[in-house]
Amino acid sequence: MPLAEVTSHDELRAILGAPTRAVMAKERTFLSDLDKQWLAASPFCLVATSGADGTCDVSPKGDPSGFTLVLDDTTIVVPERPGNRRADGFTNILDNPHIGLIYLVPGRSDTLRINGRARIVRDAPFFEQMTVKGHRPQLALVVDVEQVFYHCSKALLRSALWSSETWDPTAVPSQAAIAKQTTRRDQSLEELERYYGAEYATRLYTG
């Protein structure tokens, strides 16, 4: 069956219609006090970047609530923690500084979106403020805010993301089983279950 592809802006708007005045007017170029409260309550965000060639990346970032540091009404800082060292987002930012972030607050179905330009910083006086469990970040993203707005609840309500009765961690193979089939094929499942077991959480800030 052939695909009925949309190929123009006019065709897209004919299908979706135009956004309402309220939707367009909600955009801001600075952080309000409400935005700062949201950032102080949020322990998790998604960071979207794009390379010079158009390839994209979305990376999750998580830490204790308030991990994103607000320097002023138009500048925030996201600390980097030990991970897999792929640095896909950082590599993109070196070529293309545009960045998009979505901040979640557990239990809330609306989200805060921030778009802007990012710089990779390896040291600054505010790094001490981002120390967690004795571990100071090696790098941070300084984001110059260009666009801020709240996104409606529909996606999270449709997905029932926060409804525990819909949760089923066993619906897919365990993290150890996935690693065995993808990135760590030379290790036994038993080794991987130990690696991703109770002690995994003790290594969150040490790599």
Walkthrough of the structure:
Strand 3 and strand 4 (75-79) form a beta hairpin. With 207 residues, the chain is α+β, with helices and mostly antiparallel strands. It is built from 7 helices and 7 strands. The chain has helices at 9-16, 21-25, 33-41, 88-95, 154-159, 175-181, 189-195; strands at residues 44-50, 56-62, 69-72, 75-79, 98-104, 111-121, 140-151. The protein starts with 8 loop residues before the first helix and ends in a 12-residue tail after the last helix. Strands 2-1-5-6-7-4-3 form a 7-stranded antiparallel β-sheet, covered by helices on one side. Helix 6 crosses helix 7.
Structure characteristics:
24% helix; alpha+beta; 207 residues; 7-stranded antiparallel sheet
| Rg for CA atoms | 20 Å
Mean pLDDT: 95
Give me the secondary-structure category.
Answer: alpha+beta
Order of helices and strands: HHHEEEEHEEEHHH
Number of helices: 7
Distance, first to last CA: 48 Å
Question: How many β-strand runs?
Answer: 7
- Low-pLDDT segments, ≥5 res: none
How much helical structure, as a percent, in the residues? 10-25%
What does the largest sheet look like? 7 strands, antiparallel
Report the portion of residues in β strands.
Answer: 25-35%
User: Spatial order of the strands in the main sheet?
Assistant: 2-1-5-6-7-4-3
- The dominant shape is globular
Structure, briefly:
This protein has 207 residues and is an alpha+beta fold. 24% of the residues lie in helices and 26% in strands.
Map the helices and strands.
Elements: H1 9-16, H2 21-25, H3 33-41, E1 44-50, E2 56-62, E3 69-72, E4 75-79, H4 88-95, E5 98-104, E6 111-121, E7 140-151, H5 154-159, H6 175-181, H7 189-195
Antiparallel strand pairs: 1-2, 1-5, 3-4, 4-7, 5-6, 6-7
Helix pairs in contact: 6-7
